[in-house]
Amino acid sequence: MNTRRQLLKSSLILTAAGLFRQNVFAAGTDSSKSAQLEPPPDLFDSQALDIDFWVKPRTLDLVRPQSGERSKLLYWKDGDLIDSAYQELCHLLRDVNGKKTMAMDPKLLETLWATQAYVARFGMNRPLEILSGYRTPESNRRLIEQGVPAARKSLHMDGRAADIRIAQLHEEVLGGLISSFRQGGVGFYYRATANGGWIHTDTGLQRSWKG
Ligand SMILES: [Zn+2]
């Protein structure tokens, strides 16, 4: 346990150092100010965001590795969803295997957007990878049968959950950021693969777990 924590801690520091360089690079300004930044999770506490962040137009840049699709869309402006863009995002978040689309919870889109917009402030402009969005009950059942972590009453089946990843951003940092929005459930799935693990985010009750 100690070793794992140690490992996690050192990757966090590495991640923070990585962000740090990008931040200094992107901002190209006052490095002494950047040097005062604490490592995550303090660095990623979204509660410090001001109202300007939440009222400006929202663009989402999503990629679906499973199908190779990518969409970068302005989907929300002046307090309203832009219907055509919303439909397109729902299509991207569909059940790729079951070939079914669901009206996704706009609150979930807000979490995805806020996450992306927040890390963009640190010079991270990679698209957000959607590993799973809507799931038909059949697809969800198949995952359980295959031993993939999936809840029997998964919010994926209601269009209220997504499994996501941002390249080169540690799951701990990504999940910590999403938790700080206090908008629903967050599952941390650590995996020692080349691409790392993923974060489950949903619009259900506020809770978090490791899977
Ligand atoms: Zn999930």
TrEMBL record:
One Pfam family named in its UniProt record: Peptidase_M15_2
Coiled-coil region: none
Required co-factors: Zn(2+)
InterPro entries for the chain: MepK (IPR010275), Zn_M74/Hedgehog-like (IPR009045)
Family designation: Belongs to the peptidase M15 family.
UniProt signal peptide: 1-26
Keywords: Cell wall biogenesis/degradation, Hydrolase, Metal-binding, Metalloprotease, Protease, Signal, Zinc
Superkingdom, taxonomy of origin: Bacteria
Pathway assigned to this chain's UniProt record: Cell wall biogenesis; cell wall polysaccharide biosynthesis
Record's protein name: Murein endopeptidase K
Matching SUPFAM superfamilies: Hedgehog/DD-peptidase
